[in-house]
Amino acid sequence: MILSRQDFRQHIREKRNQLHSDVQFQASMELVTQCAQLSEFQTAQHIALYLSADGELITTPLIEWLWRQGKRTYLPVIHPFSKGHLLFLHYDQHTPMVLNRYSIAEPKLDQTQILPIQQLDLICTPLVGFDSTGHRLGMGGGYYDRTLEPWFKTGRGPKPIGLAHDCQQVEKLPVESWDVPLPKIVTPSRIWDWE
């Protein structure tokens, strides 16, 4: 039986939501160790991440580690006028937060805190699942596919790196024409590299 994209989403989300809090915490610490090895994190100054939801690999320890390294971090905000697009706003421990339409915390919209996407060095992307060729399965809104499309077509702009639990890897995902494969995905146990 061939699974649909929605079947994959449901199956993988169930797997990661079953991870015990101790496993989640350990995974978040191992993520920091993995990312600290990567030259992309060592050289980048402006790094977009996301706050974890729905069993995603917890990014808070990575964000706090980046702050200690003197890096500037940014979080996605759903664009208020351009449907299906993201803005990236500077994020630190004093950033006022609100819940978006998906009940995910994001910085309160403040034009002075927006960094144009092309000025980011890295975009760490959430994902539901990924396969052995670097294809990522998101939640289905297409926000990151639209954000990463210029990089995919031209190779210019911020480099995307996916972050995921090991259990989110599958052999092969069904792929659509608009899907943007990732050059790297970091899990707690390894760095997947297709460059």
Describe this structure in words.
By secondary structure, this protein is an alpha/beta fold. It has a single domain (5-193), classed as 3-Layer(aba) Sandwich (Rossmann fold). The protein has helices at 5-17, 21-37, 39-43, 60-68, 143-154; strands at 46-48, 72-78, 86-91, 97-99, 105-107, 122-125, 129-130, 136-137, 159-163, 184-186, 191-193. The strands form three sheets. Strands 3-2-1-6-9-10-11 form a seven-stranded mixed sheet, sandwiched between helices. The longest helix is centred in the N-terminal third of the chain and has 17 residues, at 21-37. 32% of the residues are buried. Keywords: ATP-binding, Ligase, Magnesium, Metal-binding, Nucleotide-binding.
Which characteristics define this entry?
FTHF_cligase-like_sf; 5-formyltetrahydrofolate cyclo-ligase activity; 5-formyltetrahydrofolate cyclo-ligase; single chain; two-stranded antiparallel ribbon; magnesium; 11 strands; 195 residues; 5 helices; globular; EC 6.3.3.2; alpha/beta
In short:
This protein is α/β, with parallel strands linked by helices and 195 residues long. It contains five helices and eleven strands; from the N terminus they run H-H-H-E-H-E-E-E-E-E-E-E-H-E-E-E. Strand 1, helix 4 (60-68) and strand 2 (72-78) form a beta-alpha-beta unit.
Number of domains: 1
- Overall pLDDT confidence: 93
Radius of gyration: 16 Å
- How far the N terminus sits from the C terminus, by CA atoms, comes to 32 Å
- Give me the CATH fold name: Rossmann fold
Summing up helix and strand content along with how strands pair, one would put the structural category as alpha/beta
Query: Low-confidence parts, pLDDT < 50 over ≥5 residues?
Result: none
Task: Give the strand order of the largest sheet, numbering strands 1, 2, ... along the chain.
Answer: 3-2-1-6-9-10-11
